[in-house]
Specification:
The protein is of the alpha/beta class and 386 residues long. It has a single domain, classed as Aldolase class I (TIM Barrel). The chain contains 13 helices and 10 strands. Strands 1, 2, 3, 8, 9 and 10 form a 6-stranded mixed beta sheet that branches. A 4-stranded parallel beta sheet has the order 4-5-6-7. The longest helix is centred in the middle third of the chain and has 17 residues. Bound molecules: iron/sulfur cluster. Iron/sulfur cluster binds next to helix 8 and helix 12.
């Protein structure tokens, strides 16, 4: 799919929109382009540089530990990966250094320099530990980092640390956010949406309004890794929350986005149509620029040992950068090809009129059923029977 023509998406019978009654008070996607051909080139590549991390968060996808894996990609292998990323068509995909904690890589700065020399724009998601000082952040800025991604899962220390499992990490996160602001480096705040956090979301939003945040991305829990110890919210609550997110996106002082909740695009499109917006207006909105992107289609993930996966939350290795070419795997591996084609998805996602712009969370389908092409069990919407 090379472009997203919303005029071809039928107006569906509206699903009743529940209201968010309990709390009335209230993604680093720099190169989004609806004209990208995501079946040939990803927009975002995540590289899990290491599994080593000083935190032990309760929902860690990577099940991070204190030491690197002995088979972690070496410096030379990392450079080879970077050259493969640079070999995609222009504009070069944006790269996110993630982990574990990328600050645990002793060759972080040479790898960042090498990526920049190849014309790759790089963001980083460091863990909020005492290592994340303003000096380190200033050095990252000097070496050309584009933005920082920080996790904030609670509006206060008790709420945040109950989720992240490490005393002190709320203050480190706030300090890092303030440091990034003082350095003039954009920040994306990532917030987990789960039963354990959902009632605190409005308070987190209020807190974020006191910082110069570029984007707030609400990550809807996928039960993989240590995330299995937390509870996802219900589909109905999710629908309420997505409507609330849409309302805030109209007035928030920063961009508001979702991660692993592509059906937010359905909610946003329905709301925009209800408001009488025409196609040209919809195509100028930030949410439109994410239409069509999903796990393995516009996004890919490289594990610390070089496995090529559709997404961090969809840990199915389709190849390895030590032996395979990234571009070839992304374009030609059978599972990537299947993920590029929403017409082949099963269940309601396969017949849904929103499948091209949404397609459901492939990671959640996989976590729930073992089949990444199954329908997203979280979605509240019932497409008309075809
Ligand atoms: S049924 Fe699937 S494709 Fe349709 S809106 Fe829901 S998650 Fe998206």
């Amino acid at each position: 799919m090379s472009s997203m023509d919303i005029r071809t998406i039928p107006t569906s019978t509206p699903t009743p929109t529940p209201t968010l009654n309990a709390h009335p008070s209230t993604h680093t996607h720099p190169h989004h382009s609806a004209s990208h051909d995501y079946s040939r080139n990803p927009m975002l590549v995540y590289w899990e540089m290491t599994q080593a991390c000083g935190l032990a968060c309760r929902h860690c996808r990577a099940e991070a530990v204190s030491t690197p894996h002995p088979d972690e990609l070496t410096y030379e292998e990392g450079k080879n990966l970077l050259r493969q990323i640079a070999a995609f068509d222009k504009p070069t995909p944006h790269l996110v250094f993630t982990g574990g904690d990328p600050l645990r890589r002793t060759d972080l700065f040479p790898l960042l320099d090498y990526a920049r020399s190849l014309g790759i724009n790089v963001s980083i998601t460091p863990s909020a530990t005492s290592d994340l000082t303003i000096d380190v952040m200033a050095k990252l800025k000097d070496h050309g980092i584009d933005s920082f991604g920080l996790s904030l899962d609670g509006s206060n220390a008790a709420r945040h640390e109950a989720v992240r499992g490490v005393e002190g990490c709320f203050d480190w996160t706030i300090a890092a956010a303030k440091a990034a602001a003082s350095l003039g480096v954009p920040i994306q705040i990532n917030t987990l949406v789960a039963e354990e956090t959902v009632d605190d979301i409005p308070a987190i939003y209020e807190l974020l309004k006191t910082f110069p945040v570029m984007r707030w991305s609400l990550f809807f829990l996928i039960e993989v890794g240590r995330g299995k110890v937390l509870q996802p919210i219900s589909s109905e609550r999710g629908e309420q929350l997505m409507n609330w997110i849409y309302d805030q996106s109209k007035i928030a002082p920063f961009a508001v986005a979702t991660t692993e909740a592509p059906s937010y695009r359905r909610v946003a499109l329905s709301r925009m149509r209800e408001a009488g917006m025409v196609a040209a207006e919809i195509e100028r909105t930030p949410v439109y620029r994410g239409f069509g992107i999903r796990d393995g289609h516009g996004i890919m993930f490289i594990s610390n040992q070089g496995d090529i996966c559709p997404a961090g939350f969809l840990p199915l290795a389709m190849g390895n950068v030590r032996t395979d070419q990234l571009q070839d795997v992304y374009r030609n591996a059978p599972m990537f090809q299947a993920l590029h084609n929403p017409n082949g998805f099963k269940g309601k996602c396969g017949r849904c009129e929103y499948r091209a712009l949404c397609g459901g969370s492939r990671a959640r389908a996989f976590a729930a059923t073992g089949d990444p092409l199954a329908s997203d069990p979280f979605c509240y919407y019932e497409p008309a029977a075809s």
